[in-house]
Amino acid sequence: MRDEKRVPRALLPKGLLLAAGLALQACGGGGGGGGGGFLPIVPAPAPAPAPPAPPPPAGPTAEQLKATCNALTGQVIEGVTVTGTARFEAKAPIYSSGFCQVLGTRAPFLDIEIDVPDNWTGRYWQQGGGGFDGRIASVVTKDAGGAVTAVDPTLALKGAVYAASNGGNRASVPAQAAPGVWASGTPDGQQSAVDYAYAAGGTTVRFGKAVARAFFGKAPTHSYFNGCSNGGRNAYIAAQRWPQEFDGIVAGCETMDMGGAVTGLMNTAAKVATPAEITPAQYAAAYTAAVTACDASDGATDGYLANPGACTLPAASLQCGQPGANADPTLCLSAAQVPTLAGLLGDLTLATGATAYSKYNWTNFAPASAIPGVPALGVTSYGGLGGGFAFLATNDPLWFGAPPPGTAPAPNLASFDINRDYYVFSSGLQRIGADHDKNAIAAYVASGRKLLSWHDAGDPLLSVNDHVRNFTTMSGVAKTFGLTDPRTNARMFIVPASTHGAGGNLAEVDWLSAIVDWVENSKAPDQLTYNFRVGATARTMPVCEAPKYPRYNGTGDVNSAASFTCTP
Predict the structure, then answer these.
(1) Does the pTM exceed 0.85?
(2) What digits encode the pLDDT tens for the residues 528-556?
(3) Fewer Cβ in 10 A, N or C end of the chain?
């Protein structure tokens, strides 16, 4: 019904009111039901309404953000001294928003980078390290001239505050570099070891979130941790030590049991400079034989093992003189070498029958280094990596090789005893805080927070099967905490790759979107995609939830993930 407005009586002359009243009576206006009517009286214009108040600003202005960036240098925030800041203005198409980079340090050698975008979405993303750390995994990539060529997608695409540290040591300063600095016997060296073990992560999250508050006056709404290798260890440490700080965690290419992993590494490293040691060329030849024997196990004969766990080629078949052995006497295995390879392909067990470290899948255990001067991530790194952690566990420098650490067999390897040293390593790493508490990680999962774990199927440095075994144990504990289906909050994925850390780059596997969607939209990941190259050929392949693997459908482009199905 139309709302017909009339002028109030107070606004009409007295005579007009009387005439109007008589007219209404004559037309039956007072009794209703009559068919007559009258022309409505046009009201006087209402006074103009006051203009609405402008909405409060959604956040600080660009100029306020720049001012905050400039004012932070020299401040001490959560025990960290801000040593410098830098503004990066938007640079399309690399990144659409400007951001402030905040650098800080805490004694003795912990350096931290925090990057705060102008278009902050309320997210906080902490990145773990790798190896013995010593460098910050910066949000920016620059060319030789200092120009920015890339920005981490966590900031560029998701608008997250980005945080990373050097783990408490400086690789570019020999006297402050791990693992040597830990053995210096100084208080600084001891603190550096504790920082690497766990403390750097706690300092970084407190500093990073305080810096975010300095810019925006509030805490992050969603917080994440991501890491692979030592970064994966950092990620599990975050879950067990600071569960309230992270809503979602991505933990890759670590095993959730460093005591067992170090035992496995040192068991193989103990064979260096003995008749049982296998050369890199022999490892490469052995892997070629495995690919030839097992290529079709994933449904595609393409020279690529998407499911190396299905390959059961026995090490003994490669012994010199066997029908399947290499005809080159420098590439086939001697009788003394066969148990070394067989040991890698089998579980390492204690005298009690318990598994200390699960078997590796078939891979090239001695890949060539991708970076000149940097050790390859395979058996040639076992002694150096294992020795560093053995020192953390025991404070005994004889687990190191000749200077620099890891370049020659460590003296203690000559008397390595799995049934003694497994317990020494495990208890020592727990004591310093460098190892894991599966009960605490299970409690993180049972609390409703999200854990996305992953590993490369053919990782030659850390065993995928050990990671799966420990993840399964942790999931079982989560059930005892009342979580009926641990997959609700924790899932394990296998990247179909045969190197350590493949898929760790967010351009290779989009762990970023997977964990954000899971935490913020309750959309759990079922399958992801691995983007990689084989020579000059670009390929994609499914990343399946364990224990599934990608199997070729029999038709379609073998280089496309669409041609594969995740299969139990």
Answers:
(1) yes
(2) 999 999 999 999 999 999 999 999 999 99
(3) N
Inform me whether the pLDDT recorded for 36 exceeds 70: no
| CA–CA dist 560, 525 (Å, integer) | 20
Q: CA Rg, the chain, in Å?
A: 32
Q: What's the gap between Cα 187 and its chain centre?
A: 31
Q: Is residue 547 a contact partner of residue 189, using CB atoms and an 8 Å limit?
A: no
Q: What is the pLDDT of residue 21?
A: 36
- Residue 50 DSSP label: P
Listed in sequence order, the DSSP H helices in 115-168 are: 153-156
CB 567 within 8 A of CB 550: yes
How many other C-beta atoms lie within 10 A of the C-beta of residue 340? 23
From 372, 530, 368, select the one nearest 457 (Cα to Cα): 530
Q: Does 47 sit behind a cis peptide bond, omega within 30 degrees of 0 on the bond before it?
A: no
Confidence check: pLDDT of 20 > 50: no
Distance of alpha carbon 163 from the chain centroid: 12
Token pair 């965690």 in the structure block, residue:
249
Q: Is the peptide bond before 174 cis (omega within 30 degrees of 0)?
A: no
Rounded CA-CA distance 337/551 in Å is 33
Closest to 490 measured CA to CA, from 474, 508, 470? 474
| Other C-beta atoms lying within 10 Å of the C-beta of residue 129 | 25
100 strand-pairing partners: 87, 116
3-state SS record for 501-562: CCCCCCCCCCHHHHHHHHHHHCCCCCEEEEEEEECCEEEEEEEEECCCEEEECCCCCCCCHH
Q: Does 23 have pLDDT greater than 60? A: no
298 Cβ contact partners less than 8 Å away, ≥ 6 residues apart: 304, 305, 306, 307, 310, 496, 549, 550, 551, 552
Per-residue pLDDT tens for 291-304? 999 999 999 999 99
